[in-house]
């Protein structure tokens, strides 16, 4: 009828009922969950704690539920909070992708790319790739975190990462394998070590050799040789560390042998400062390093560009091998 106002969009009622569910509030809630307190969240966001607490209280009041339990050792999400955090992960990921797509339409090569990878890849391989890429596209920013092999999949599924680099293994349908390269596990040692001239090594060769172990980085169980699992379970390593840099120093000091792929030691192996020898294990020889992305989310333009770059680098690794 003439003079009648058009009906509001279907989501207008929800927006009116929950006016605080905007980007800033969602980022505040995400940081509270990550840091475990309002104060630490405020420090990470560079805002006043009162602002973070005010947003939390407003959202809880609007929704009519508690999102966090205030415990002596920090703040923990309630069941309603867990649901909210899943929504936050999807919403912020979609928002970042939207910004990237709009930038792409304007011809601006920008955006933020979140990568999780095995620790050894952050030593040499990824720094080379990102150095070259960043020189060509300086407006693209990155978050790059080291993760244990299985944890990489969880980060992609939970929308905390856009790209994952880890050993190929059965994964959730929410994760897509883009490409892979054969990357066997071998023994890394000083060229002066008594085993350094061998072409291949059995686990029995290490009985009288001090060994080093990187904490928490065993590849996914279905792809691990039973003999290696038994060897690892019974051996008493001389050093255990979650720092590949410390283990690198210990190897070069001839204090032991460690078990890695070649990727964490490319420069030293090429220069002859370290030696990498494959292990006589069919399963370990067939280990593959995979490039994974989410299968249920459209990649932002910046992420797609990085995936293309990494795909080419994987192909180069295959050719070099």
Automatic annotation (TrEMBL):
Gene Ontology CC annotations of this record: cytosol
Keyword DNA-binding part of the UniProt annotation: yes
Gene3D superfamilies per the UniProt record, alphabetical: 3.40.190.290, Winged helix-like DNA-binding domain superfamily/Winged helix DNA-binding domain (1.10.10.10)
Domain of life: Bacteria
PROSITE patterns, per the entry: HTH_LYSR
Stretch forming the signal peptide: none
Domain HTH lysR-type: 26-78
InterPro entries, alphabetized: HTH-type_LysR_regulators, LysR_HTH_N, LysR_subst-bd, WH-like_DNA-bd_sf, WH_DNA-bd_sf
Record key words, sorted: DNA-binding, Transcription, Transcription regulation
GO molecular function: DNA binding; DNA-binding transcription factor activity
SUPFAM superfamilies (alphabetical): Periplasmic binding protein-like II, Winged helix' DNA-binding domain
Family that this chain belongs to: Belongs to the LysR transcriptional regulatory family.
The name this protein goes by in its record: LysR family transcriptional regulator
Gene source species: Limobrevibacterium gyesilva
Species classification: Bacteria, Pseudomonadati, Pseudomonadota, Alphaproteobacteria, Acetobacterales
